[in-house]
Amino acid sequence: MPPFRARSSQPTPAERMRSILTAAHSMTVVSDGLAPVEVHRLDGTGAMGHVHLHEPSGTCPVHPASPVPVRLEFTDVAPTPVRDRLRARVTMTGLLAAPYDAQATGSLCMEFGQAVLDESGARTFVPLSALQTAVPDPVAPHEADMLTHLMDSHAELVPLLLRLVRPVPDRTLLRALPVALDRYGVTLRLEYARTRRDVRLPFATPLTEMSQAAPRIHALLAAARRASHPSRMSA
Questions:
Q1: Is the confidence at residue 10, as pLDDT, over 60?
Q2: Is pLDDT above 60 for 152?
Q3: Which residues touch 222 (CB under 8 Å, ≥6 apart)?
Q4: Which residues is 197 bridged to in the sheet?
Q5: What is the rounded CA–CA span in Å between residue 102 and residue 104?
Q6: What is the C-alpha to C-alpha distance for residues 166 and 189, in angstroms, rounded to an integer?
């Protein structure tokens, strides 16, 4: 397993893309000039368990006389009721050996073309080698449930976490909501009347397995209780 980057506080583009593909419940397939097809068979496996990607010289080769261009689209939507819930998009292009069959139940074998991550107004091209070697985020399959549970059952902890935000939010802040959770930390979205900003609260060290999630979050809460924060939304 590749080592974590020293003092990392957020995922690389390859790790971010891998997390989106791991947690995906559906994807849109655009192939051979046909209308887009929504595929909803990704639960439990994610895209990486449904789509087999390979280099042009790898296994499952596409016959050069009959390649079928295909585009796979994935959207990453925040599970909490924040503004602008679309967090990122992933688009992968490539070739199939035959026209896409919406009724097929097996793994989709695709010759890799390119993969693009659109996030925060930036587009990043991720090579197949980086995508395949990115360490899967153990939080990705559980993120939606964890953030939903936080909002539904422990909403009072969000203002507490706000004590850790620097610079301190000014008094025009309307609300703060958790918008993301990964192995590196928690991200809060601060919403103002006409703008917003996302603030990452990093864990002391990235977690490597789900059993470490609760202790990391409790450590953030303990730090927040020790902090002084003049915001009107403070706990």
A1: yes
A2: yes
A3: none
A4: 190
A5: 6
A6: 13
